[in-house]
Design goal:
Number of domains: 1
Radius of gyration: 15 Å
Largest sheet: none
Shape: elongated
Oligomer: single chain
Length: 117
């Protein structure tokens, strides 16, 4: 049971890491004067935050899938998001990288949605 709880905590922690990455990208876009894309990233940030709040609000035994498996998926997605963040920092294909980030977050939200009843 303890390892199950740790897996669930690790999943939420990975999702919070994603929130930080989205905050980073949103700020970079706003400072660059790209409010439209920043707003898109902010919307995904809010959707991910809501998914985290849903998970936190559920009693641990109400989760229906293996949290460790989903956490591993989120960790992989975080690495992809970080690669896109680096490209945005370097001003490489900003629009394409924003789309990639939004896609990774959408996929993560869908994966997590199946965890709770």
């Amino acid at each position: 049971m303890a390892s199950d709880i740790e897996a669930k905590i690790d999943l939420i922690t990975s999702m919070v890491t994603s929130l930080g990455k989205l905050t980073n990208v949103e700020a970079r876009l706003r400072f660059a004067g790209d409010a439209a894309r920043a707003d898109q990233v902010r919307q995904k940030h809010d959707e991910l935050r809501d998914a985290i709040d849903t998970l936190r609000g559920k009693v641990a035994d109400q989760w229906t899938q293996d949290a460790a498996q989903i956490e591993a998926e989120i960790t992989k997605r975080n690495a992809k998001v970080q690669a896109s963040v680096r490209n945005i920092q370097k001003k490489i294909d900003i629009a394409e990288n924003v789309v990639k980030i939004i896609g990774q977050v959408d996929d993560a939200i869908q994966a997590v949605a199946g965890l709770v009843i």
